[in-house]
Amino acid sequence: MAQLSSDQFAFGGQLLSIEDALDRVAAGLPPVAGTESVPLLDADGRVLAADIAAPVSLPPFFNSAVDGYAVRFADLAASGETRLPVSGRVPAGAAAGATAGGVAVRIFTGAPMPEGCDTVFMQEDVRLDGETIILPQGLSAGANCRPAGEDLPRGAQALSSGRVMTPETIALAAALGLTHVTVRRRVRVAVFSTGNEIVSPGTPLGPAQLYDSNRFTMQALLRRLGADITDLGILPDDRAAIAAALSAAAGGHDLILTSGGVSTGEEDHVKAAVEAVGSLTFWRLAIKPGRPVAMGVIPAPGGAEQAAFIGLPGNPVAVFVTFAHVVRPFLTVLAGAKPERPMALPVRAAFPYKKKAGRREYVRVALRRGADGVMEAVKHPRDGAGVITSLTETDGLVELPEPVERVAPGETVAFLSYALLR
Ligand SMILES: Nc1nc2c(c(=O)[nH]1)N[C@H]1C(S)=C(S)[C@@H](COP(=O)(O)OP(=O)(O)OC[C@H]3O[C@@H](n4cnc5c(N)ncnc54)[C@H](O)[C@@H]3O)O[C@H]1N2
Ligand code: MOO
Fold first, then answer.
1. 371, β-bridge pairs
2. What pLDDT, on a 0 to 100 scale, did the predictor assign at position 307?
3. Residue 138 confidence (pLDDT)
4. Ligand 2 center to 388 CA (angstroms)
5. Is residue 340, in this structure, part of any structural domain at all?
6. Which range of residues forms the domain containing residue 14?
7. Which pLDDT belongs to residue 28?
8. Closest ligand to 213 CA?
9. Same structural domain for residues 102 and 79?
10. Averaged over 129-137, what is the pLDDT?
């Protein structure tokens, strides 16, 4: 399980910047240790546990990139057209043969280059005159063919440990002939919602109750990150019950993730519960929405294992935003991958905005093309941290750095698509 020290998060009562929080996490958090070999298709989203060197060259042999005629460049006239007799035909998958030069060989895309040939004319660019081909001038040596190993030579590093497998990296591994790759085991995450007012979808809704959306948000996001999830349901606003459940969940999990109950009210018991059974090390981040985010370490009964703890605030939009900016990078490190900041794109703000300096704010926006064709961001009309439709009706978040106090329409702002955050 995660070997976190409580000092790792130690911080006074001030707001902690997201970068400082993540630096602390990245500095002291060892990735999960176990590895397994998985079939290539099952590797999507998993983290490579070892470097992969190319066992074969890619492409494995010198071949034509087009359907056409293979020639020896030295046979081409220095100026004007060249006439060569056509001799031989090499379809893909056939043996290449060799020429002594002075001929053009009919060849097809992916077919091996005949020994002695080094250049290919596309069939659209030539004229046939009986058994003779007329080649235009101007093609450069080596045109339209692919040398062995031009993509990756045998023995070169193809993928490095820590790389998250994707359809692109799966394509590369398959092209190298691999059937399996070695990946780190999945991060085991226990998920709770908290709150006396929260009930699971599928149960009747009583007065003053609402359906649990956060446990679904968290799990849907965790699934995309390849976590092994245990859904532990909803905990009441009761310190002893929360403490007991957290302690029990610490065995067999790397991370315990909760929502709700981390704010300052006397009905917010998560913080105290963590302190009762483990250590709570920082809990206020300079981020909006989502300032109350608790982190800590919870030992399992017996003390041999421990789990990291992250308590997200209860408001559904805060859950989404803090997951993206805190849980996601944390899980990335725990899973053995390199944390990467999602790349924000510049867009034009189509809204005015005021904020307090000192916190990083994320504004929910929809994108549209302005009259001049430039992409612009339109702020959702409702910005309450509980308004879930403000997420479903927008495309992403505009990130306003800590020092910013106002945004005027027309200014360039940093846009983070939801696609990058989940
Ligand atoms: N006096 C203060 N009050 C609040 C502060 C503050 O600093 N001082 N912070 C506000 C902010 S910001 C947020 S965010 C919330 C976070 O508080 P908690 O983490 O303690 O969250 P709860 O009070 O439990 O719930 C907040 C809100 O979210 C709803 N909720 C909770 N869980 C779920 C769930 N699983 N699915 C759907 N909705 C959920 C809950 O009913 C509340 O409406 O505190 C502010 N208050
Ligand atoms: O975390 Mo609260 O949602 O900032 O509004």
1. none
2. 93
3. 93
4. 13
5. no
6. 6-34+185-334
7. 67
8. 1
9. yes
10. 95
Kindly state whether residues 226 and 318 are assigned to the same domain: yes
What is the rounded radius of gyration, in angstroms, for the C-alpha atoms of the chain? 30
Torsion of CA 202, 204, 210, 214, to 10 degrees: -20
Strand order through the sheet with 279-284: 228-235, 188-194, 255-259, 306-312, 292-299, 279-284
Find out whether the beta carbon of 364 lies less than 6 Å from any atom of ligand 2. Answer: no
Q: What is the ipTM of this complex?
A: 0.94
The widest CA-to-CA distance across the chain, in whole angstroms, is 94
Would you say residue 330 has pLDDT above 70?
Answer: yes
pLDDT at 14: 67
Is residue 137 domain-shared with residue 221, that is, in the same domain? no
- Pick from 225, 223, 224, 198: nearest CA to 213: 198
In a domain, 1, yes or no: no
- Say if 297 falls within a structural domain: yes
CB within 8 Å of 254: residues ≥ 6 apart: 1, 2, 32, 187, 188, 189, 307, 308, 334
Q: Is 196 in the pocket of ligand 1 (CB under 6 A)?
A: no
Question: Please, which pLDDT band fits residue 9 given cuts at 50, 70 and 90?
Answer: very low
292 lines ligand 1 (CB under 6 A): yes
pLDDT over threshold 50, residue 7:
no
Q: Residue 174's domain is classified under what CATH number?
A: 3.90.105.10
Same domain, 40 and 170: yes
Q: What is the average pLDDT across 222-230?
A: 96
* Domain count of the fold of the chain: 4
Which pLDDT value is given to residue 97?
Answer: 85
Q: What is the pLDDT of residues 341-358, one digit of tens each?
A: 899 999 999 999 999 999
- 156 inside domain: no
Structural tokens at position 206? 């009583």
Tell how far the Cα of 220 is from the centroid of ligand 1, in angstroms: 20
User: What is the distance in A from the centroid of ligand 1 to the CA of 43?
Assistant: 37
Question: Mean pLDDT, to the nearest integer, of 88-113?
Answer: 94
Query: What's residue 252's pLDDT?
Result: 94
Domain co-membership, 369 together with 323: no
Q: Whole-prediction pTM value?
A: 0.89
In contact, 308 and 326? CB cutoff 8 Å = no
Q: Answer whether 285 contacts ligand 1 (Cβ < 6 A).
A: no
d(CA 252, CA 307): 8
Domain identity same for 296 and 322: yes
How far is ligand 2, taken at its centre, from the CA of residue 279, in Å?
23
